[in-house]
Each structure stands twice: as structure tokens, then as C-alpha cells.
Amino acid sequence: MGLQISVLTIGDELLNGEMADTNTAAIARLLASRGFIVRDSLSIRDIAGDIVGALRYLARRGGVLIVTGGLGPTADDLTAQAAAVAFDRPQETSSEALAQIHRHFARLGMTMHPRNDKQAQLPQGADILPNPGGTAPGFRLCHQGCDCFFLPGVPAEMTAMLEQSILPALAKQAGQAEILHERVLKVFGLSEPKTEALLDAIRLPEGVQVAFGVDFPFVHVKLRISGDTATAHLEQAERLARQTLGDVIFATGTDSLAATVARQLTTAGQTLALAESCTGGLIAKLLTDLPGASAFLERGAVTYANSAKRDWLQIAESLLEQHGAVSAECAVAMAQGIRQTAGTDLGLAVTGIAGPDGGTPDKPVGTVFIALTTETTERVKGYRFPGDRDSVRQLTACMALDWLRRHLNARAQLKKT
Amino acid sequence: MGLQISVLTIGDELLNGEMADTNTAAIARLLASRGFIVRDSLSIRDIAGDIVGALRYLARRGGVLIVTGGLGPTADDLTAQAAAVAFDRPQETSSEALAQIHRHFARLGMTMHPRNDKQAQLPQGADILPNPGGTAPGFRLCHQGCDCFFLPGVPAEMTAMLEQSILPALAKQAGQAEILHERVLKVFGLSEPKTEALLDAIRLPEGVQVAFGVDFPFVHVKLRISGDTATAHLEQAERLARQTLGDVIFATGTDSLAATVARQLTTAGQTLALAESCTGGLIAKLLTDLPGASAFLERGAVTYANSAKRDWLQIAESLLEQHGAVSAECAVAMAQGIRQTAGTDLGLAVTGIAGPDGGTPDKPVGTVFIALTTETTERVKGYRFPGDRDSVRQLTACMALDWLRRHLNARAQLKKT
After folding, report:
1. What's the confidence (pLDDT) of residue B76?
2. Cys-Cys with B63: which of A177, B4, B269, B344 at CB 3.0–4.6 Å?
3. How far apart are CA B257 and CA B241, in angstroms?
4. How confident is the model at residue B175 (pLDDT cuts 50, 70, 90)?
């Protein structure tokens, strides 16, 4: 099972729509990077009774509890007081905490405001956690088998204290055997149920669990195991999953599809030019989100108007009249046109109807053509992507990137043989 | 006090550091916009026992419970099953839900995968909530005074169903007097503390509260009031805020900056061509996110390589040699070049160093030039935007769009006089 870790974030601003609770995600990410998994997280408002109730509910189950927020000097900061009530301890001024607050103000060349006294009034028996970046000291309390850490809600202070005080404490508590190892395989082009059905049919190494997640339009396959044999078993599980799913897996871990393609292009020394119609620059945007795109992206054309298709891509007026701008013929001509104009190894083009308007019975919304040309080859295919404008544009861009990925994979294989 | 609303989000991915739980914030925001405040929110993993425990804990307190996630077709989707256990009801196939899933696949021209059957197995007595965008139907269950709504975790589906099914139900439950009215003014080009300081100095109508939020790079000013005089007082508050803040306010409500500019261009009948370097297609992408861009966007050039700047924008080699591609001279030439090539009313160009590499002492990362040309005018300005690659690209795109907004505003004023 591993350590049972709960997170409690406290603050009105987390629940009134003003801001997202980024602390929970930051804590989960940091803990996951060390192999710890958060079991659950609760966000509540600055209401004394709710804080007391939540602390009792979460602490009752033992394990580890990480609390953020409500340690400030103002009247609506209630966490220390509520912790004293929840855990039946008196609240008293901690001289160590008070000294730390004084030191903080001295470092800034300031005198402590009397209100900051309040931040040293902690539940009896609390151990002080230093705060290198702010006034509020954190504290740690063990209550009936639950190890509770209280941190300020300011993200930078919270993160620094988590790294400095909590992660080492957790590492000490957890034996190596408890740490959960995870490998995420990212899939494009296979639905979640189909992916699961394929993996159901294979026998994974003992102890490896599979879970699924959707990050539209991608499916994430999560292989998990804890214990000494984790790494070897994960390797084997990934090998088996790859054998079964084949090349719908485009990345492992945190890589995006665009990042995968960018790396392939750079490694292969291949240059690319884009001609986008319905995606309106989205493919270029995705490829340039990460640095280094200048190594392979020569140029991109967003050719919304037919005049742009004629000028820049040498699309003949007769082709547009005969087949229309949304056609296999036009997509191929666009890819050839941009490749020749730019003088690149690859020319990629997309044209389609993203909607909501512009659909016809013959070519309904979601009709998209993708074309990829090289010096010696050309490939084109039509799709009918489901969903709204956003969905059609996302699917078009990802499918186009996936074409590049598969093309560059095949090319690399060919080079090897 | 108003309605007591709790949110429960379910999914391993929310707690293992893979992604932040955006659903809670989205729900809180939508509810807040209708005057409802979330009391607390709990996130848990796909573990049957934890889901049962959380449902019992949250439902025991009555009020309203909104649950998202775990309604998918795979084995790790456990919410419906756990709800049946938690609320002591048998699980049975809902013919209404099944029909809805079949209709969804039929709309997409696909056949239902047998695994999707699972999504129709709901706790007895559940009312079906239609899902206009996906396979998983939602459902509603009243259990011992707690009104529980179950929605899929896919953000777009969740949001649509919240608006369609839940908000009207909540409005029915809450009296009109309780409802908080809100008006959001969106600001670009003024920091949050500066915006607050300016508004602190004015006297708002009685009962109107001001809150602030940041949606980088924008600041949201939220004017809120409840009661019968709400509308009139909000009108007056908006007028005062506009007098004070002036034209840094680019929109009210849910409009984006790009949507504002798109509407202005369409209304003015002005056509636009873009030349993007460091933003790599982001401006074109933003302007084409919403339908109707073909009315004004003739074309966009993503000119990463200098060869593309020469070919398509007629940038002279000597200009590039003398001033470099990141210069005021190059930005103006790009804007003129794209405008002449495309034959549009407006030519907009950006060139800069988004980083992390490519900076020099003279032109550090964040150096960006923006240029806007018309038949009779040209304007160019250099910026040093702070932050990482993402931040520089966002700020560049938004500043460029803001130039268009201000230009079109001035033009509309001129036409009027």
C-alpha cells in the first residue's frame, strides 16, 4: 500500500472561483517525483468548524497529513487554533516560532508588526518547521498515529518547506519497498476501451497494475508497481504493452506528441514546412511551444483565403474550382506547394471544415484532409473527425503530428536496415 | 448561509502529479458566477473503498454534492458502483442511459463498443442527466437530504452538463434574494495591485463588492452584489470602474481578447494578414479558435527561417544583416511585406526572442518587436517581456492583439466623429 498521504488546503480563495488550488497539484507532483502517491486531498474555506471537522476526519485514518494555508497573521487565519481544538491540545506561544519570526523581519531590516505574534501561537507539542522565505513558521504534530505537517499557503514558501522538511521525513518513514513506481505510456489513435481490451488479453508481470486516463485526444496507460523488483517488472510490462499496442504509443512519461516529433525531426536532420487551413496555425504553435524548433521548421503558412493558397502554395484556380479547397487534391497540392516553396525535406498540409458552419451533406463539419510529401513520396487521406470546432482542430493537429511521427519512425527503421 | 455545496473529484490522475484538478476550479468559478459558493472539495483516487467513504462523508451533511470522474467504460471507473454501495442501492442497467450512449455513437456514425454498456449500469433510482458531448451519461440521486449530481470528468462534458442540468436545479432550490450577481471586467496591461489601487480610490455604489483574479496575462475585476437593486448598482459600478481604469478594459463577461478583436475586425470590415516569428502561429491560432475568422483573416505567415522572411515578406538581405531579424526595422518590414503580399487592410508582425536560448546582452530573452501597418500608417515598438518562453509568447500574442483592439477602437471613434 505504501504511505497513506492526505493533503488539506485551506482558504476561501480556493473555492470561490477566484483561483485554482495549485498547491495540491504542486504537492502531488513533488511527492510523485519521489515515488509517493497522494491518497486524497480536501479543500475547505476559512471556517473554524470546517477546519476542525476536516482535520479530525483526515487524521483519524493515520498515515501522513499535509496541511497548507491559514497560518497568516490576520483574523481569518484559523488553522493553528483549529488544530489545537481538533487534537485537544491547548494553544501556547512557541518561543522558537517567535524567534524565527523576529529573525525573518530582522533579515528584511524591518521590525515585527505586533499582529505577527499570532503566528507563534501553536498547539502544544508542535515541532517547528523553518520557513526560509516568509513570516509563518510551519509545524509538525503527531496525533494518534497521524503525522501532520502544517505549512503556509504561499506557493513558493510551501514548496521550499515541503522539500526541506517534509520529503526527508517521508523518505525516512517509507522503506524502499513501499515506494510506488509508475510508468506512463501515451497513446494516440486508439480509444480508452479498446486500449484496455487489448491490455486485458496479456499477462503482465506479477504485481504490475494498470490504470487508464484520458488527456484528450490522448489515452494514458499507467503501469504501477512497488517493491524491490519494480524496475525490472516495469521494463518487462512496458515491453509487453508495446508488443500488444504497437506504434500507437508515441511517448513515455511526460513527453508530448509535438515534443516527440520535434526530437525526431532534429535527430533525423529533416526540415519541415507547414500549410495549415482549418487548424489556423495550431500545428506550428504546438511545434514551437518548446525551444529548438528553428532547427527543423523552415516556415508555416496559414492559408485561410484561396488567394493565399494560390500565391504561396501554387494551387491552380482550376483545382479549387473542380475539387474545392477541402479535398484530397487540394491537400496534396498544398503539401507539394509549401515543400517546393520552402525547399524543405517535408511538406505537411491540412485542410478541412472545423465548423460549426461551412459543412455540406457531402463534406460535413469534421471533414479533414491531411497530406504529407517528401522528395519521392506523397500521401493523403480524408477523415471525419467527431465533436465541436475545438475537438476537430485538436484531432486534426494531433493526427498531422502523428503522421510525421510515423513517417520519421519508418525512415529511421529504413536507415538502420 | 445559502446552499451548502460540496465538490468531489475522482481520478488517479488528479493526485499523482500528472495534472492539476481543473474541474474543481471550473465548477467553483461557474457556481460563483451564479452566486453559489462551494463549501469544500475533496479529490480522491480511483479506489472503490475511498469513493464509498468519501460519498458517505460528504452526503451525510446534506446540501448539494457535485461529483466528477470515474464514469468511463474501463475497469478503473468505479464511481457508479461505489455510489450504489455508499447509498445502499442495487446497481442496474438504465435503459434511458443505454439509449443515450447508443444515440451518441450513432451521431458519430460509429457502433457502440460492448464495454460502453458499463456506463449505463447506475444505482437504482438515479435520474439520468444528458451528456451532449460524450458517451458517459451523468445522473442525479437524492440520498437522505443530500442532492447528489454525478458528472463525467472530461472538462468540456462536465462544464456543459453543469450548465445544462445542475445550475438550473440549484437556481430552483435557492431563493432569488440569495443569488449573487457578478460582472467581470477583463483588463490587459495593468497589474493586479495597480488595478486594485486605482479602484480603492473610488466609491462604489452601496453593496457592491470588488474582488480580483489573475488569468495570466489578464486581470479580472469582479463586481458583485446580491438583492433587488443588483442590476442597477452593477451598471453604475461598471461605469465608475471604466471611468477610472479606461481602455485597459478589453471585455466584459466571458469574451476573450481574441474574440473581441475578431468581432471588431468583422464589424469594421477590415482584413488582416499576420507575420509571426517568435509566436510561431499562436496569434493565428487564437484568432481562429472561434468560428468566423475567414471573414477577416486572409493569411498568416510563420516565418521562422530568414529565407521565409525574404521570400514571403520581401525582407531585404541587407536589412537582416544590418539590424538582425529581431529589430524594429525587421518588424516594420515584415508587417509591410505581409500586408502588400496579402493585399489586406492591416498587416501585423511580431519578431522576438522567446528563449530560453538566443538572447544576447543587447537583446536578451524577452526582447520583442511588434509592428502594425495600414495603407497610410505604420507603428512599431520594442518590448522586454518577463518570464519564460511560454510567458514571452503569451505576452507577445496578447500585446499584438491589444494593438489591433486599440487601433480598431480609434478607427471606430474617428468614423463616428
Report:
1. 86
2. B4
3. 19
4. low
Provide the 3-class DSSP secondary structure of residue B135. coil
Residue range A377-406: mean pLDDT, rounded: 96
Q: What is the pLDDT of residues A257-275, one digit of tens each?
A: 999 999 999 999 999 999 9
How far apart CA B211 and CA A323 sit, in angstroms, is 55
Number of cross-chain residue pairs from A and B with Cβ atoms under 8 Å apart: 271
Report yes or no: A342 at the B interface, CB cutoff 8 Å.
yes
CB contact at 8 A, B380 and B334: no
**Which residues belong to CATH 3.30.70.2860 in chain B?**
179-252
**A138-175 pLDDT tens trace:** 999 999 889 999 999 888 889 999 999 999 888 887 76
Tell me what pLDDT residue A175 has: 65
- pLDDT tens-digit map of B140-159: 999 888 999 999 998 889 99
Which region holds residue B343: left if phi is over 0, alpha if psi is between -120 and 50, else beta? left
CATH topology of domain B5-176: Molybdenum Cofactor Biosythetic Enzyme; Chain A (3.40.980)
**Cα–Cα distance for residue pair A236/A246, rounded to 1 Å:** 15
End-to-end CA separation in angstroms for chain B:
51
Question: CATH says B257-416 is which class?
Answer: alpha beta
**CB atoms closer than 10 angstroms to residue A144:** 8
Q: A5-177, which class in CATH?
A: alpha beta
User: Any chain A CB within 8 A of the CB of B30?
Assistant: yes
Distance from CA of B280 to the nearest CA of A (A): 5
Distance from CA of B77 to the nearest CA of A (A): 9
Q: What is the pLDDT of residue A178?
A: 63
- The residue behind cell 477590415 is B270
Cβ separation B282–A285 shorter than 8 A: yes
Q: Which of residues 38-67 of A touch B (CB under 8 A)?
A: 38-45, 50, 54, 57
Phi, psi of A290 (to 5 degrees): -100, 150
Contact A285 B289 (CB under 8 A): no
The answer to whether residue A70 scores a pLDDT higher than 60 is yes
Residues A59-68: tens digit of each pLDDT: 987 899 999 9
For residue B178, name the pLDDT band (cuts at 50, 70, 90). Answer: low
A350-to-A278, A300, B242, B330, B338 alpha-carbon distances in Å = 7, 12, 43, 29, 22
Distance from CA of A93 to the nearest CA of B (A): 30
Smallest Cβ distance to A285: which of B113, B281, B311?
B281
Q: How many CA atoms lie within 13 A of B166 on its CB side?
A: 30
pLDDT in tens, A345-354: 999 999 999 9
B12 chain-A contacts, CB cut-off 8 A: 211, 213, 222
The ranges of chain A annotated as CATH 3.40.980.10 are 5-177
Grid cell, residue B351, equals 519578431
- Whole-angstrom distance, CA of residue B354 vs CA of residue B389: 5
Find out whether B265 and B348 touch, Cβ atoms under 8 Å: no
CATH code for the structural domain at A179-252: 3.30.70.2860
Q: What's the pLDDT tens digit per position in B39-59?
A: 899 999 999 999 999 999 899
Q: Are strands B180-187 and B209-215 parallel, antiparallel or unpaired?
A: unpaired
**Parts of chain A belonging to CATH 3.90.950.20:** 257-416
